[in-house]
């Protein structure tokens, strides 16, 4: 579970609610919510195919629950496998594949065990990385779009509220509800875009970069296993992908 995402949302909403104070009920307006939330969902369905739009629920869950493997942990595992290969040969990894949770690594190892050439492994795994990156980009783009749609629907709600207010200036009792729609729709749209949608888009983009880095480490590591490279040499090669603070040798 991504604690940072949960804490960030709670802190942001908490500060807004604290600033509002005891007048929170004045900021709850069903017509305004209907315009912004309903309108944003509707526009999303216009912009994306139904199946893709519905996948946003799963993407939200991944934002909170999905964990990217640590680069240092992946390198340590690959070095361990390299030591096994150096001692007992590549076929000794057959018993290890079923115990590896990372599907990308398991796929690469299986190809290595099957005797595929490093160039073939590279071609297949790079193609898979491209497809994964495309899926990640689509999810991030959807949230960027939602971050654009929500404030726009808020502005539409503001115009609706202003028109209603101007049409009923002779009736003082109608001015309050109309002004409420005018102001709260903009508030809801800005709140949804800047606390939820746009930060989630940024989180998904950063997470995708982290996962692509881990996948590249795995790809290079599997190629090293195939050619029987010295575990120390392989480790030094792979540690180059990490920032200096995260580099830790298994041989120290």
TrEMBL record:
One of its GO terms (biological process) is bacterial-type flagellum-dependent swarming motility. It comes from the Bacteria. It is a multi-pass membrane protein. GO terms for cellular component: plasma membrane. Residues 99-214 form the MotA/TolQ/ExbB proton channel domain. The keyword Transport applies. Its main location: membrane. It is found in: Cell membrane. Keywords: Cell membrane, Flagellar rotation, Membrane, Transmembrane, Transmembrane helix, Transport. The chain crosses the membrane at residues 7-28, 34-60, 146-166, 178-198. PANTHER family: CHEMOTAXIS PROTEIN MOTA (PTHR30433), MOTILITY PROTEIN A (PTHR30433:SF2). Belongs to the MotA family. This is MotA/TolQ/ExbB proton channel domain-containing protein.
